[in-house]
Task: structure prediction
Amino acid sequence: MQVIINVEEGSIVTVDVQGPKPQQAKQFLFYVGGKQVSDMNLTTTQKEHVVAQPADNHDNPAPVKDGTVPTWASVTPGIVSLFPNDTGLEADVQAIAVGTTDVRVSGLSAKGVAFSSTFSVAVTLAIPEATHFKFTFGAPTEQ
Result:
C-alpha cells in the first residue's frame, strides 16, 4: 500500500491506515499430504490423516471463532472412524467397513456464523497379496 499526502507547511495531519479486514470462514478445504482433496479411497486396512483448513469464499485462510473446536462426523455410521486432534483442524480417518460415506466438518466463523464442508470416502475390501508359500505337513506314514 502506498499513501501520498500533500500538506501545507505547519499543518498537522493524522493518518489512520488499516490493513484489509480479515475474511470470515465460510468453508473448510481438505488436505492430505499437503495436497487439496475432495474425496479419498481407502481399503479396510488403511487410515489417512486429513487437515481441514477454514477458508473464505475465495479459498483464502480464515479463522474460526476463538475458543471453538470444529467437529467431525461421518454421514453414514460404521464405514469410517474419525479421530480429530484437540484443535479440530486435523483428524485421522480410519476405514472399518466396505462402503461409501461423506465426512462433514462443522465450525463457527470468527463472527459466530455456522458453516460446514464435506468430503467423500470410499472404502473397499483389502485383498491380501501373496508373498510366499506356507507349508503344512501331515503325519508320516509307512510306504
In short: The two ends are 97 Å apart (CA to CA). The mean pLDDT is 89. Residues 27-122 form a domain with the Immunoglobulin-like fold (CATH 2.60.40.1080). The chain is about 0% helix and 40% strand.
